[in-house]
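Thread: quick sanity check before group meeting

JM: Hey all, I'm pulling together slides for Thursday and realized we never actually wrote out the predicted structure for the chain we discussed last week. Dropping the sequence here so it's in one place. If anyone has concerns about the input, flag it before I start.
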Amino acid sequence: MAYREVTMLEVKEVLRLWLDGVPKTRIAAQLRIDRKTVRRYVAAAVARGLAPGAGQAPLDDDALAAVLVSLRAPPERARGEAWARCEEQRATVGRLLAQGVRLSKARRLLARQGVEVPYATLHRFAVAELGFGRAAPSVPIADCGPGEEVQLDTGWMTLLAADLFGKRRRFRAWIFTAVRSRHRFVWPVLSESTKTAIEACEAAWEFFGGVFKTLVVSRRQHESDRPGSRPARAAAQRRLSRVRTGARLPYRRRPRAQPEGQGPCRALGANRPR
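JM (edit): ok, ran it. Output follows.
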């Protein structure tokens, strides 16, 4: 279910009119919002000590901020008997989850001991109190110095214009992203191969004005003519790393944990040719 965002200007305008003595029905009609919304804003203001007809002097930034915090705070939900039973079995549930037991099986084991708990309540308890279902935190990667590393990815681009037969062809691209500046260079190709990779590197080095010290290759990168062949892929990367250098350019695979926004082809749409 989608909820309408509560804006500061809307709340401030409602409270300003209410403090001037304008009735709630007229405020709702004037601002074109529901009367229940007006009553909710007014109730939050009354709980913070504001009173109608007192003028706008009490409505300072601190009072407005307190009203906004109370409006955006999630409603507190009363805990029932099932939650209390989960609290009593906290140690047992935590031990089972630490052993890798599925939550549904943990519920069945509790039922064998005479503890009946709905699965929905047990799941909410495990998530809120025991950290169940939380993914491993991402490992932040420190940025390198200027000109040290460049990330190499590939991705699908948009469709070309229709040919004589009315067929639109989809093409790919080699994508170079400087780790420090996040400047991006895109080289469209019709097929991925060592030849097109070398051509893309030539163009990228010219675009960036030099060769980077390290080439960070995506884990999903396949540059060999035989997909899945590790020796062929390593040989292709060695040939690619010697472009314009005469010596091997160090490269490494990108780690699985990446900072947000640095995954392959995150903002590819901005680089599509028009």
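AS: nice. The radius of gyration is 30 Å. Strands lie at 149-159, 170-178, 184-189, 214-217, 251-253.
JM: adding both to the slides.
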